[in-house]
Prior knowledge:
Layout: E1 3-7, E2 10-15, E3 18-24, E4 36-41, H1 44-56, H2 63-71, H3 83-93, H4 99-117, H5 127-139, H6 144-163, H7 197-206, H8 212-221, H9 225-228, E5 236-237, E6 247-250, E7 253-258, E8 264-269, E9 277-280, H10 283-293, H11 313-327, H12 401-411, H13 418-425, H14 430-437, H15 442-461, H16 479-486, H17 497-501
Helix pairs in contact: 3-4, 3-6, 4-6, 5-6, 7-11, 8-12, 13-14
Amino acid sequence: MGTTIIVSMASIEERSSGVRVVWRLKRPGHPSHGRKQPIECHDLETAEKVASVVDAHRGNLTRSELEQMLWGDLSLEDEGITFSELAELWLPSKTRISPRTRDGYQGMLGFRILPAFGGKRVKPFAPADVSGFVNGMRAAGLSNKTITRHYSVINQTFRFGVKNGYLDTNPCDGTDFVWDQIADDDQGDEDHVYLTPDEYQLVHGSVSGSIQDFVEVLVASGVRFNEGTAFQPRDLIPPTRRNPEPQLWVRRAWKLRKGPDGKREWYLGATKGRQRRRNTIDWALWELLLKLSEGRAPDDLIFTGPKGGRLDYDWFEIRWNAGIVHAMRCPRHPPEAQGKQVADATGNCGDNGGLTQKGTACGHKLKPGWNRCSWHIAAPRDAVSNCDCSEVLHRRPTPHDLRHTCVAWMLEDPNVASTYVSRYVGHATNSVTDKVYAGLMPSGQKSAASAIAKARGRATSAAPSRRPRVSSRAPKASADELGAETSPAPRPRQPPVAALSA
């Protein structure tokens, strides 16, 4: 561990990698005012001379200015600041992010980004440097969502640098990075689950009665979980003469931040992206919310946990998952039980294959007449049926898929524009809706195909007739003789294949 020698305005740090002088810039109004200015030195004698220069200027010197003063053309001033220094300027400049988001950015910088190239100067940065970092995360097995978040932090930092003159171009603009790409070949199954009305009714009837009302609100309003749990009676906007339909005001969401004691705490803040919206809702949802709001003050929570307060996601998810498993179990084809009746079975449950939830061998005694203990005779808690019966759910939706289902139902209606859907669910821009739900617009695709067919039909009917082929060996016919051939009657349309087969 290195030692530090304090020398007036600057300090000399002896480290295993060498000696450096560190001071804080004393220049009010400068972007780096109050920030550390480190400079590497070859030996302790040089470091003492550098520190004396800093002291003589009372700390009113940037590192690049001092390097230029001491070494002239050997200075690295032209290469600008390092990425670490740029990130220290960028993050405090963010004013429209929540404390949790700020902590997340700081964590990504400190854990992966800065150790990778925090000391690299930004001006000679190349797109290949960013691509190499992305490929390294992908090789480490990180998810595409995690990679996208790290890339976003790097991209925002460089954009801040370009805007403030620290570098000319953003190296991220030269990469071929695809946001949240599914795979290298853009193939793979869709992560989202869009429930059909029948599937939703099956899910709604299978979940616990304690969460059924909230499930109904989520799928009917399309809000996020932390937005729905923040609903209050004052968010219900009754119909008026100008707006004859009831509305729901989505303006708050539960968020996390660090409390005074350093622990995380929940608080009511703005919605994601600060996208407040007043959405028109159907009368059935309006009546349900009114019923749930009875006896509550205007600023009380409509949905609360079993002991009051915020409705916890983990508590909700346990009951949600249990309901999904119940919907995926067929009464005629139940999942196979783990235990079997064996009269002379000996040993413990684990000796016959019984495992705990942690995957370790179960040490309980066998139930008389069975090869498993009482806990492991029935089918596993999350086991589902393998049949293809229509009355059974065959997919595993998450609570967030209720929001996706709401969007899918809206986009199935050709009268609902994607712009309205984007505003209804609180997306920042229409491009977000188009990127996530572009494949859910069958009505739009059908209309596009119909428009192309109509245009082709007009083009075919307006096409000029073909001139008859005239052999060069035969005598040329007169215009009167060719008159009937130059304007042939249109050929009758062939019936479709299905009609011919019929």
